[in-house]
Amino acid sequence: MAYQISDDCISCGACAAECPVSAISEGDGKFVIDADACIECGACAGTCPVGAPQN
Ligand code: SF4
Ligand code: SF4
Fold first, then answer.
1. Ligand 2 centroid vs 7 CA: distance in angstroms?
2. Rounded to whole angstroms, how far apart are CA atoms 24 and 19?
3. How far is residue 3's CA from residue 47's CA, in Å, rounded to a whole number?
4. pLDDT for the residue numbered 46
5. Domains of the chain, with CATH numbers?
6. What is the per-residue pLDDT for 38?
7. 8 Å CB contact between 24 and 16
8. How far does the chain reach from its first CA to its final CA, in angstroms?
9. How many whole angstroms separate alpha carbon 39 and alpha carbon 28?
10. In 1-55, at which residue ranges do the beta strands (DSSP E only) sit?
11. Which of 22, 23, 26, 34 lies deepest, with the highest CB count within 10 Å?
12. Ligand 2 center to residue 20 CA distance, Å?
């Protein structure tokens, strides 16, 4: 199952820079993950300062 970004996101953008398939983009009030593109590598979760990406 693809990772999802929770409402804890503070829109810092760090995860988007780390995603190897560019699946993360800025959404309305938080960043969002394209579930069809995510390969579940976990890099976003490892980078996020607030633990917002979860699977
Ligand atoms: Fe990108 Fe990996 Fe996070 Fe999926 S788990 S959004 S592929 S960094
Ligand atoms: Fe949001 Fe975390 Fe990504 Fe920053 S690294 S944009 S807080 S999900």
1. 10
2. 7
3. 13
4. 98
5. 4-54 (3.30.70.20)
6. 98
7. yes
8. 7
9. 23
10. 4-5, 24-26, 31-33, 53-54
11. 23
12. 15
3-class SS at 3?
A: coil
**Minimum-distance ligand 1 atom for the alpha carbon of 34:** 6
Long-range contacts from 19-22, C-beta under 8 angstroms, 24+ separation: 19/43, 19/44
- For ligand 1, whether the C-beta of 23 sits within 6 Å is yes
Look at the chain and count its residues. Answer: 55
Q: Whose CA is nearest to atom 6 of ligand 1?
A: 38
Tens digit of pLDDT for each residue in 14-52?
999 999 999 999 999 999 999 999 999 999 999 999 999
